[in-house]
Specification:
By secondary structure, the chain is of the alpha+beta class. It is 23% helix and 32% strand. The chain has 4 helices and 8 strands, in the order ααββαβββββαβ. It has helices at residues 7-14, 17-26, 55-66, 138-146, and strands spanning 29-34, 39-48, 77-84, 88-97, 100-102, 106-112, 117-123, 162-163. Strands 1, 2, 3, 4, 5, 6, 7 and 8 form an 8-stranded mixed beta sheet that branches. A hairpin with a 2-residue loop joins strand 4 and strand 5 (100-102). It is elongated and about 55 Å long.
Length: 168
């Protein structure tokens, strides 16, 4: 089961300097780590003040000031969506590495209506080392993708490259 939490690994990640330093600066916070990228998948705790004139600026300032120890590729982040509920504001970022979308990437910063950070999550990757030159052509890609399928009558090959993060 890929979603099973490994209690020993979670304890190891909580003991790393980045998390220890974060909690030393910010008080009581709780975390569940993404064990594949070793970054907080969901963290929440005492509200943290940050600066900026809007939610995106506040979220970006928080990332720069508080999350740098986790190896956040801040230069690869772009705002995907922001929204407000009755009690919170959410800023969602996605990651692009050398212009290619990193599939399933997301960095969320949740703020209270006073503009303080109350939760965050980092499903982003900082150690991407993959050439962005296709190793097979379009015809080979179609042949590989359709192997074992019957009834495929139409195919479409996009020139847009994407990165599927598979930590090893």
């Amino acid at each position: 089961d890929l979603m099973r939490i490994d209690a020993v690994r979670q304890a190891e990640l909580r003991a790393l300097p980045a998390w220890k330093s974060f909690t030393a600066r910010n008080g009581t916070w709780y975390v569940e780590f993404n064990e594949a990228n070793a970054k907080p998948h969901r963290a929440y705790g005492q509200p943290i003040s940050t600066s900026g004139s809007d939610d995106v600026q506040r979220a970006s300032a928080f990332i720069a000031a508080e999350l740098s120890g986790f190896g956040v590729p801040q230069q690869e982040l772009s705002v995907a969506a922001t929204y407000r509920s009755g009690k919170y504001s959410y800023v969602n970022f996605v990651q692009q590495h050398e212009g290619a979308d990193v599939l399933f990437s997301r960095l969320l910063v949740k703020l209270d209506l006073s503009g303080r950070v109350v939760s965050f999550g980092m499903d982003v990757h900082d150690a991407i080392d993959v050439p962005l030159i296709p190793t097979i052509g379009p015809a080979d890609a179609v042949a590989s993708a359709s192997t074992g399928l019957s009834g495929v009558t139409t195919t479409l090959v996009s020139d847009d490259l994407r990165i599927l993060p598979v930590p090893v």
